Amino acid sequence: MRIHNCHTHIFTNRCVPDHFLKFGLYRLFSNDSFTRPLGRFINTVTSGSCNDIFDQYTAFANIGNFRSQEAIFDFLARHYPKGTVFAVLSIDMEYMGAGKCQVSFEKQLEELADIRKIHGDTIRPFICADPRRPAIADLVKRYIEEEGFAGVKLYPALGFYPFDERLYDLYSYCQNHAIPVMTHCSAIGIHFNYPVTREMLVHPKTGAQLRKRKKAAFAEVYSHPENYAYVLDRFPELKLCFSHLGGSKEWHAYLATRWDETQPVSWLKVITDLIRNDRYPNLYGDIAYVVNDPTLMNLLKALLGDRLLRSRILLGTDFYIAEKDISERAHSIDIRGGLSPDDYRQIAEANPMCFLSTRY
Ligand SMILES: [Zn+2]
Predict the structure, then answer these.
(1) CA 288 to centroid of ligand 1, rounded, Å
(2) What domains are there in the chain, each with its CATH number?
(3) How many CB atoms lie within 10 A of CB 350?
């Protein structure tokens, strides 16, 4: 079996804007000369365990501090059998209102193209598409046709709706060539960093007045899976993966709710209903940063028991974001050990091969 991990990241801290985390904590944690002595001190006064939360967090931040994306890719690959395929998702953080990135998005892409030249098909880079970037469709086409990129990544929580019409040329191109689109669909994650304005409080499709809320909560309006009904109505055969299948919070909400109209509908239910809709034959979901919570493994097994969903769920670990909680080796072994060999082969090989195959 050739394992395919469909959701990983290898961007360095230099691709991340200055104000990514409040008070620059991210940069502080990713600075060795700060974390080493502090870690030693904390481990001395606490249990001394090498697996405490602080160590995990610094492990995460220090990976981002590696000298290059290639060094991070090498580190990732060493956790898996030789020949494992990794979908690597780039990220464009230049429009989220968090300051300047030391390494521009275009430079991040050039580095990925260089890594692909060295590592061939074991790395499948996805180009992040933000509708606010001028001529985004042309940039995507160039990287797919000339640099062998595998697909497109969307991150609406950075401040746009997936039905933004500046993305429609791109969707049309992706639908025509069966190019996979991977979208962040979780209420958890990074989000835009500018004030919520009065204009933002009017829903662009329905005209409804939206409730004023903080940035992190408002970002959920952009990420909500119902937004894709507008996209799929126009591009029903788009090959689209809902990353995180709504995220662990929504998986827990799914477990906690009854089939009852008085209950809010979990994002997981919205997504699985879309996947089951036979008008949309090319929808997928990945399990990145979800089953690192072991209490959700049984729900994954139940989803894989459904004949249709079984063919649409993809293995993904969200390396190195999940490193905050668990090492990549432990995480990947927990997934493999938690599933039957058939189920594992389905999500790690059969489904990813369909998802990643294009008509080129
Ligand atoms: Zn991710």
Answers:
(1) 7
(2) 4-30+65-356 (3.20.20.140)
(3) 15
